[in-house]
Amino acid sequence: MSNVSKRILARRAAVQILYQSEITGVPADKLVDEGLVPEEAKANEYARELVCGVSAHRAELDRAIGESSQNWAIDRMPVVDRSVLRLAVYEMRYVDDVPQSVAINEAVELAKAFGGEDDSHRFVNGILGRLARLSESEQDVAAEAPTEEASEGVAEAAPAEIPTMGILSDFKPAEADSAENVE
Question: Structural domains in the chain?
């Protein structure tokens, strides 16, 4: 069995365990440790990593999901969708060798397979897409920010540009006009 197939099965098992945890109120990592999972959800090492990771970061994952969902409190979401979203957001943020696009695609497939609503996969895709765009824009901002070393010795930051709102967009200083006429 290929590594990809093992990961797909691991995600399926992890979602089942996370779902069972929500329904029973037993912590997911405890379900795994004590072997209290259905036979089809027997966890391989990657599934165990996912379940334990989601459990350890659940509050942060829920906060990110809640901020990205429009008009949906996380506790109002269907349990399966919530489990799929937590798993995907964990992979997007903490599993370096899984590209965001793969985490999203796998989550959409899980939502199609397990989701109780006809639109579960669209709902999951929408929230994860928003999170991915937000993550990309945060990375762009971080990449553009000056490093601490680069800013050492600089007494004062350059003044910010003042937005003109288009009022001065056609304004050219006199020197610019004469320089254009010379050429």
Answer: 3-144 (1.10.940.10)
